[in-house]
């Protein structure tokens, strides 16, 4: 998307961009976006083939890094996030990996929130460290700890907000100021909010990453990821993609395009239902605490109200007793799907300590607040009364 006066989408609102951005109609004049199921492209001449491979002429080269359907998705998600460019990847984790491999080098230092998805912790702490990247893990909300961790070679700060699964909320503008003062990039995982509820780039972040598998798809159909930022940074990410190949498939890109068309409507519905359930859960005797920024009692409520347009569809709560009670609660439900995915029209339930964060050490889980009694919900679009009745089955099982 450009700011050209000839661009009909210049200044368009999110709902319009979610449906119209990134459309490149072919000579067939199709209305829906086509799926370009091709691995390669035919060149008019050897000279033109050479020019495209050298980057001297625009055009498709090979679907590992240039595909019209994927490009439509990239342009649309970049427009929604307010970025100059986007890159589609094979998964959310490959989006983070591609960002790290493209923009970091041996000897660089990364500060990563300890309040991130367990696999993100492993990617930075175990695998990036093998390539000479130093990693420091700090509490998401402890700005002083982030400041103290800054070094002359700090190149990147990485965080999720709201965090998974405790829904803690970071001040993106403050974190951006801290990163930029030290010459580092701020990378924000915007999976829980999506651009329908939060745009980190507008708050000062340099790069946004997504697991498109979650709310961007919205129906649990495909795996994919996205990276959004400046043309300069995204060129580096594309170069990594071209070389190493964690590529989004054209079919998956098409599914994500369809998901984006209803994104705001779904996110508002998810948020409204999650807020209702959070209040309902707070009133249950067996619940120790509810983690959801929409609750006025949540420490990050005021901040989330400022930098988000709603509070999202994911919440967690801790039941009294520990893992045995949490497992009995989960096993008693019949409507919620017991799966680690989230962001689906179908509500899901999971035990983070033994699934999404199961590969962390006991010490890492304790430091991150992932306690044995913690249960995470992704609130879908079913009738709220049915969801409450299903959760009541869980409470009855541990009464």
UniProtKB/TrEMBL annotation:
One of its GO terms (molecular function) is carbon-sulfur lyase activity. This is O-succinylhomoserine sulfhydrylase. Keywords: Amino-acid biosynthesis, Methionine biosynthesis, Pyridoxal phosphate, Transferase. Pfam families: Cys_Met_Meta_PP. Its cofactor is pyridoxal 5'-phosphate. One of its GO terms (cellular component) is cytoplasm. InterPro entries: Cys/Met-Metab_PyrdxlP-dep_enz (IPR000277), Cys_met_metab_PP (IPR054542), O-succ-hSer_sulfhydrylase (IPR006234), PyrdxlP-dep_Trfase (IPR015424), PyrdxlP-dep_Trfase_major (IPR015421), PyrdxlP-dep_Trfase_small (IPR015422). PROSITE patterns: CYS_MET_METAB_PP. One of its GO terms (biological process) is 'de novo' L-methionine biosynthetic process. It comes from Mangrovimicrobium sediminis.
